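[Discussion] Sanity-checking designs against the backbone

I'm trying to build intuition for which residues belong where. Below is a structure token string of 440 positions. I'd appreciate it if someone posts a full sequence so I can compare it with mine line by line.
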């Protein structure tokens, strides 16, 4: 088989590389020449564990190629995956201009039947827009070429995306014809040898499944954060509560860890887009509107705790942040709680130092010289009044607290991920704040 994947961002590059891993001939296309040149030289433009090995290995074997021209690579393709960005518009809806631009380019250049697959996260009804865009170009050319449109949302977790793609727990595909279903089934057969299913459904249901899945996970996070904040007020320990409810198989123990709110490229954007879809169809998704509100508020939790400790005016205070990416094992800082924390600390007059194991270049690009970026976590703690644990990297799980305490002006820790034991912190002489547990 031969496929083209348009877009070499997080979704496109992982999808293309992992498809090539099964023996499919894949060409990844992107208009960004710099990015394509990087890939041709074996450099990976994003941080994702295990991805470089898969890309380099399949490129050497000739199964994975990179190009800036979709037109030159459509010939012989069984399918073309659209994996370009769908950034949120000002009103929260997904911007489909890049998706539809690719669809139009396919229509201008295709000569044989193929399946056009939306891999980007797109609102319900996008496949129909893609079909119209392709068909309109064919009409302009005065040609009749059969094609199908399919929906194949991704369910990849940053930090384990390669494993998630190679060993999926399910594959969701929306199709309209038996011909398209057979091509997609053949393409994905190597990925379901573990017995997990390919779930075929209609286009609308497939598109909705992606949004509903992310919205449900975001809901669990916001729910637990709200419960954690109440636990502090009534004297309960959210960790005990979490264990108590997580043992119920109807609830499960995933995504019920309290913290500083969700971020990243998916949950914030997808919740907003689904809320917008509801409004457009005369249906307010009140639960998801509350999920957004809780998450926005939760990103300020550590700064609120700092102000409770020091007072509202943080002028002259120095804080260090451990962790800048929105989650471990990625350098992605899109919608990261750290960005809100930095902004609010600076607004309150504080100085900020920070360290992240992989997101330092991204942080420098986003925040520039507004804060001091250090070479390691211990340097970040030098001369600070308070330490904020923002991202639960394994590097931070068992640090040398005696060394850290000797560097700090005041031994205060604001643990946004509850990874430290309160009693241990007290024994070490720290004032310790966490999420949903009593301060010590």
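Best answer:
Here's mine. Compare freely.
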């Amino acid at each position: 088989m031969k496929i083209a994947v348009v877009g070499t961002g997080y979704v496109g590059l992982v999808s293309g590389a992992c498809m090539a891993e099964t023996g499919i001939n894949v060409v990844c296309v992107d208009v960004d020449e710099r990015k394509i040149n990087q890939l041709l030289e074996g450099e990976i433009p994003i941080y994702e564990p295990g991805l470089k090995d898969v890309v380099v290995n399949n490129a050497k074997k000739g199964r994975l190629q990179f190009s800036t021209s979709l037109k030159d690579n459509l010939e012989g393709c069984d399918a073309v995956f659209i994996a370009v960005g769908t950034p949120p518009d000002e009103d929260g809806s997904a911007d489909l201009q890049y998706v539809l631009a690719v669809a139009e380019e396919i229509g201008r250049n295709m000569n044989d039947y193929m399946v056009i697959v939306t891999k980007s996260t797109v609102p319900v009804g996008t496949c129909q827009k893609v079909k119209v865009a392709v068909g309109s170009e064919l009409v302009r050319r005065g040609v009749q070429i059969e094609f199908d449109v399919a929906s194949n949302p991704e369910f990849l977790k940053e930090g384990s995306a390669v494993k998630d793609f190679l060993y999926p727990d399910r594959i969701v595909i929306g199709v309209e014809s038996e011909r398209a279903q057979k091509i997609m089934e053949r393409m994905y057969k190597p990925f379901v040898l573990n017995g997990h299913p390919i779930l075929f459904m209609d286009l609308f249901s497939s598109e909705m499944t992606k949004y509903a899945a992310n919205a449900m996970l975001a809901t669990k996070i916001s729910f637990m954060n709200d419960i954690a904040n109440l636990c502090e007020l009534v004297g309960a320990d959210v960790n005990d509560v979490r264990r108590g409810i997580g043992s119920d198989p109807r609830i499960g123990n995933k995504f019920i860890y309290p913290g500083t709110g969700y971020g990243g490229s998916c949950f914030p954007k997808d919740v907003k887009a689904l809320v917008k879809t509801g409004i457009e169809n005369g249906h307010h998704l009140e639960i998801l509107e509350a999920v957004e509100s809780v998450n926005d508020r939760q990103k300020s939790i550590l700064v609120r705790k700092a102000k409770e400790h020091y007072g509202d005016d943080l002028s002259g205070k120095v804080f260090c942040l451990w962790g800048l990416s929105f989650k471990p094992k990625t350098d992605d800082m899109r919608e990261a709680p750290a960005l809100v924390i930095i902004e609010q600390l600076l607004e309150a007059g504080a100085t900020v130092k920070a360290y992240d194991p992989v997101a330092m270049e991204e942080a420098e690009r986003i925040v520039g010289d507004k804060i001091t970026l250090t070479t390691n976590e211990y340097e970040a703690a030098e001369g600070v009044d308070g330490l904020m644990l923002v991202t639960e990297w394994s590097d931070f799980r068992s640090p040398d607290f005696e060394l850290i305490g000797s560097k700090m002006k005041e031994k205060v820790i604001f643990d946004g991920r509850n990874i430290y034991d309160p009693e241990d912190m007290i024994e070490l002489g720290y004032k310790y704040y966490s999420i949903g547990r009593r301060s010590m």
